[in-house]
Amino acid sequence: MKLTIPDAFGRVSMSAGAPRSRAVRFVRRLWRKTSIAGLAVYALALGALLGLASADWATSGGYPFGGVQVGAWTAWPRAGAANADPYTRAVNARRGEIPLAVGEGLLLTAAVDDAGQALDATCTYRIGGATPPARAWTITVAGRGPRDPGRAPLREGFTSTEVLRAPDGWFSIVLAPDVQPGNWLPSPRATGPVRLALRLYDTPVAASVGSLDRSSVPAVTRLGCAS
Amino acid sequence: MRLVSLRFVYATLIGLVLAGIVHIAAVLAIPALSEADAVSRARTSENLDHPQSIYTVATGDDPSPPEAWLPIPDPAVAVGVCAYNLADGPMRVSARTGPLSLSLAAHARRGAFYAVTDQAAVRGALDLVILTRAQYDEALADDDENDPSRDVRIVAPDTRGFVVVRVIAGLPSQRPAANAAVQAVSCTTDTSTDDAPTGKDAAVKDAPGKDGPGKGTGR
Questions:
Q1: Strand ranges of the sheet holding A105-110, from the earlier edge strand across to the other edge
Q2: pTM confidence score
Q3: Which positions fall inside the DUF1214 domain (chain A) (predicted)?
């Protein structure tokens, strides 16, 4: 942006080598003589740059709208629907994502714990409790960006079939950097933010996300941090 | 001088309004112009009669699937896509249900327009036919009243799109079977309007596919 906005007044910045007073006078004269055409070029350049930059910014990360907050989790019921909002469609198109359709399942993501603090790879979390009704679910953890090549891939997630459960049917997964008894989910990287994804497959709640409440999704509790 | 700065303020305001217009236009144009979206990437599988694997779940020692382009895939779900181009004729997707849960979703550029899981299967078979409105009317007109077709017919909003096959491996030991179950789905183009030859064709193509999960070779 900084490179191109002076474009409209390109000659101004190029005359910086001249003595200062002459340059100032030159700028003043140019400024006074700035015609409608110069202003039009400036307005067009401003519009194009700001418009494209903001469109790029809004569609380069995750989905900007359409999430439904449930406890620490955010459900994305309309991410794969044909009537998804244009931003969601643009994000999907840029990432090559194939989102879960409403009849297939529902994606919930969490970047914070129940207290609202961002999930960090150096901390230990307990993820447990109930899940919404679904034929199968998976809980996975991922860091930001590409995977660290030096780290051996131990485990990225649990499925509803393989998770160890308490006698009452509840489960408790511990996300920690170090080995833990029970359902241990290794931190995907040494440091930095991590994200959890809960995918519910073949679930009736995809059509009625409003029926979800805090007690029907797994709680994410921070147990402690290494540093 | 004051006049000039007022003009400058006006130009800035016009620039901001233009920025808004450009922003909206860009966001709306991204799905149509993107070359990295799923519809464009899936297009290479148009000529296959089985899904192209886009995410094979890790089995044993082969951890990284090279063909994966899903940004954050589910490590327990094998994914395959069948692209269709309805200009060549309706596409028939046939899946046989197995022990693993399987789901099919039909996507077009605007998003998913149909999804079904194997719980909707009739006698272990799930047959979808994706067609355009004109092909649908033709198929309806050609229907034999005494022997109505049992296909699930879905009218697609665009001529191009893809069908996603997802198979969930609940346990690591089921992962080879999940990869094989994705490959066992058949996606064929109904070239002619009468169903008899294509039906036979589909049946022949299913036969080797059915052996796949039994052998559990992963491919």
A1: A68-70, A73-75, A105-110, A194-201, A136-143, A157-159
A2: 0.78
A3: 105-203
